[in-house]
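One example copied in:
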Amino acid sequence: MSTLRSLHDWLTYIERQHPQSISLGLERVRLVLARLALPHRACVFTVGGTNGKGSTTAMLEAMLHAAGYRTGRYSSPHLLRYNERVRVDACDVSDATLVEGFEAVERAREGIALTYFEYGTLAAIWTFAQLPLDAWVMEVGLGGRLDAVNVLDADCAVLTGVALDHMDYLGDTREAIGYEKAGIFRAQQPAVIADLQPPASVLEVAARVGAQVQLVQRDFGYAADKTQWLYWGPFGKRPGLAYPALRGPIQLLNAAAAITALDSQRARLPISMQDVRRGLAEVTLPGRFQVLPGQPVVILDVAHNPQAAKILADNLFDSGFAPDTHAVFGALRDKDIAGVVQHLVPRITHWHLADTEGPRGTTARALADVLKQAGVEVTISQYANPAAAFRGARSVAGENDKIVVFGSFVTVSGVMQELTHTSPHAELH
């Protein structure tokens, strides 16, 4: 593919290499990975779950980096640049590095059709394998059992939680979805389960494969007061911890899961108390209850399913009083939109609804219909895109109000692009 020079060219090309955007199954990925013949000796952490997996991967990376280990981290989707998906030593890789990875995959695939995600996953694995890394932190894209990331055998698997999402692909019950997500567990390897009420299917899969289960509230957990928290687990306690830099009480659960995963590999990758403290203090992850400086307060959150929306609503309540709270909301039509908005309705005094583009997008008018069916009587405004909705919210919000942007990665990304354009030095990361 000598005509493909730029990262943009490659991303456009790989979007066209499979007739479906999502095609679950590992056969194609395994074939291409075998052809790549990549040696690696790094410790692999695989993180799956419906909500919280992004935060957990970020914490794992931050604590490992604080301890001086060389890390690779793979995640999805991205908000502003594809490079966010592939990180080495806690920094996004360059366009040139990504292009090298795509070129390697293209040479190896020999006509095998790969989806955009499969192509990107293999390119990330190739990139990490070129470097003397100590740990790979791999976030599952969708499900687990048949997700491209699962082509790697995890030295430790983390399951952050199971909720109803991606039901067209994973099933319409927590039991069915749990079965798919537990597919990342491996025989005789730690399986850290951070779901407070895990489906029976998760525990059944873990028992069947012979994984070493570490279950929250039984094998590890945490206790907290207003200023600090304590972690406890199979290898002892870590008291007097400051709250993670990622906001919201749910992050203590994610942090406890990350610490348990690291402790499971303590013989290979020892982590000190200071490494834990520093990593949790320095961790960043855009779009997860991200509070931007300035007035009115702007909060970015990619919450796009009912469980995440409830967490967002709780975090809004805990964040203090505002005369008015403006929602900039855009969603994808294959999500449980009614289930998402029901948790936010009591917190929002003005809705700014946005059309979202693409085959999965929906219109502001359709969102307005959902809100009206939910009995919403406050002001509802409609816009052609998330950036316009955000401008509308900012034009009417008072300096003591809040603007919360949520509903999808697409919505948050559109507002982040608007903020970057209008204020090039905006602190988004």
